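Memo subject: From amino acid sequence to discrete backbone structure tokens
Action wanted: Derive the backbone structure tokens from the amino acid sequence.
How to read it: Take the token row as a discrete description of the fold.
Attached in line: The record itself begins immediately under this heading.
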Amino acid sequence: MELLQITSSSDFPLISTKKIVQMNNVHASYDSKNHILKEITLSIDRGTIYVIIGQSGSGKSTLLKLMNGMMIPSKGTVKIDYQTPNINDPKFKSLMHNIGYIPQSLGLIKNITVLENTLIGALPRLGKIHALLKIFPEEEIREAKKILKQVGLEGKEYRKAYMLSGGEKRRVAIARAFMQKPTLLLADEIVSELDSVTAREIMNLIADAQKTMNLTAIMVHHDLQLALEYANRVAVIKEGEKILEIGIEGDKIVDFQTGNLATDEIMEMYSTDTKK
């Protein structure tokens, strides 16, 4: 049998396995004293929707920052496709276009158009001069308009971002992320402060993209019932610790892992919270 020989690291392709995100015994702190996350261990399958639920201040947003390299854990390991996330590492920085990140603030530029905001997602593909001057090829403009139609914003391409409703602004942020052509989408409170109809429309957009683009979507929000409706797995975070993880297939819970709290305490706490 002839053996495959790897002569240098450049011959080895980017590792692509079933697990796209792996965290092992992760602790995180903003002041090196008080840990906002403690002993977080989780793994996320490629091509799934994973929702992180928790009350304000529980550490949900910090988890996303660890995944996109904006923050480094004080203890433990984080791997994205077996790469260590760190925005200051040139090797990881070259892969960041694969990660679409929608912050809680959405990060839109309010005085430019919907189309221009969406085209920002194409900047990593352009040369430095084109990116600096924001000169976009015709094919990128066509792609942006196609995506805006996909997210329900056809006809609003030239409207300024500040003129949009809350739901429309979220659609623009999603369109900008889709324009990156990411393999991983991180969305922080994308459905917060939306009515139930609009929240489901936004979740439907992401669920459709997860299927058509083979996207892995990791979302942070506070509505456990909505998470159970759309996600493949749901993790519940309380005071920086993962206290529950649920696996879902269709309308059935197929895996239920609890930490220190009793199951009825968890369900009562979050069913009460979603009614507020």
User: Anything to note?
Assistant: The mean pLDDT is 85. The two ends are 65 Å apart (CA to CA). The chain is about 30% helix and 25% strand. Strands lie at 19-29, 35-45, 49-54, 75-80, 99-102, 184-188, 216-221, 233-238, 241-249, 252-258.
